[in-house]
């Protein structure tokens, strides 16, 4: 899709309505700004719990030795690093991200850890994946789907590149289930998070957008329905930490 031709269409960037092409540019600017301190900020925002979520995400992924895995919105490479030893010497992991700064940070960190064999890096748009049909056993996307402009199109692309029997997994912030917890969660997201961004990363606005993007992301049942509409079978989700995040799963049958 040509980001310079919006055909008058609008989408949301946090709580703002913006042209489709402008959202792509704005999201790109956010992640270019936060790339170097992205992991540090995640640790501060979640008190380190995001690392446990990601470990559980990969541990329950069903990935096997020899599998070919595509990790979308792979960013700084922490999920790819967890997947890599599980696919073994016969498997491979492709780390894809639309943002060159995030991709560079992820590649450099994985190389610094000595992870080279079986890892490839591709700058890509999740809405138009540069891969043939039925090429992957597993497609993952962690904390990235909410930043995609056309989520149904991205889900359909994930379905297209999966082999029959392959699985898609989405790890994403979701709707907190206990109603009494939501005001506290909003206080953290809309007040604490932007201030942390200003103090640690020197960027309050980017972290305000990240909090707003969580609120605008489809809740659990809605995202499950979107996956079904994209052609996935046996769709399900599992809440973690009272629904602060959820893991959605679907199969290409």
Task: Describe the protein.
With 253 residues, this protein is an alpha/beta fold. The protein has a single domain, classed as Rossmann fold, CATH 3.40.50.150. Helices cover 44% and strands 23% of the residues. It has nine helices and nine strands. It has helices spanning 20-34, 38-46, 49-59, 78-87, 100-112, 151-160, 182-201, 204-216, 220-229; strands at residues 10-13, 16-19, 68-72, 92-97, 119-123, 136-142, 162-173, 233-240, 245-252. It has a seven-stranded mixed sheet with strand order 5-4-3-6-7-9-8, sandwiched between helices. The protein has a two-stranded antiparallel sheet with strand order 1-2. Strand 8 and strand 9 form a beta hairpin. Helix 3 packs parallel to helix 4 (78-87) and helix 7 (182-201) runs antiparallel to helix 8 (204-216). The model is unreliable at 1-5 (pLDDT under 50).
Quickly describe the structure:
This protein is of the alpha/beta class and 253 residues long. It has one domain (35-177, 209-252): Vaccinia Virus protein VP39 (Rossmann fold, 3-Layer(aba) Sandwich), CATH 3.40.50.150. It is built from 9 helices and 9 strands.
């Amino acid at each position: 899709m040509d980001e310079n031709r919006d055909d008058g269409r609008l989408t949301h960037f946090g709580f703002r309505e913006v042209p489709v092409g402008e959202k792509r540019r704005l999201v790109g600017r956010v992640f270019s700004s936060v790339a170097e301190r992205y992991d540090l900020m995640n640790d501060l925002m979640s008190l380190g719990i995001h690392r446990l979520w990601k470990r559980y995400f990969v541990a329950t992924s069903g990935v096997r030795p020899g599998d070919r895995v595509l990790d979308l919105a792979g960013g700084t490479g922490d999920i790819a690093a967890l997947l890599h030893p599980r696919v073994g010497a016969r498997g491979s992991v492709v780390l894809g991200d639309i943002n060159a700064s995030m991709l560079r940070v992820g590649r450099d960190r994985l190389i610094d850890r000595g992870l080279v064999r079986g890892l490839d890096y591709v700058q890509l748009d999740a809405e138009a994946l540069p891969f043939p049909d039925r090429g992957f056993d597993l497609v993952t996307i962690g904390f990235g789907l909410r930043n995609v402009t056309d989520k149904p199109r991205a889900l359909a692309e994930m379905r297209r590149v999966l082999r029959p029997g392959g699985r898609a997994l989405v790890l994403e912030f979701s709707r907190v289930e206990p109603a009494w917890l939501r005001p506290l969660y909003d206080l953290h997201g809309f007040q604490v998070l932007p201030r942390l961004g200003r103090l640690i990363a020197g960027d309050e606005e980017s972290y305000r957008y990240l909090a707003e993007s969580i609120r605008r992301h489809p809740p659990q049942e809605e995202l499950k329905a979107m996956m079904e509409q994209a052609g996935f079978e046996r769709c399900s989700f599992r809440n973690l930490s009272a629904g602060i995040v959820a893991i959605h799963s679907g199969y290409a049958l």
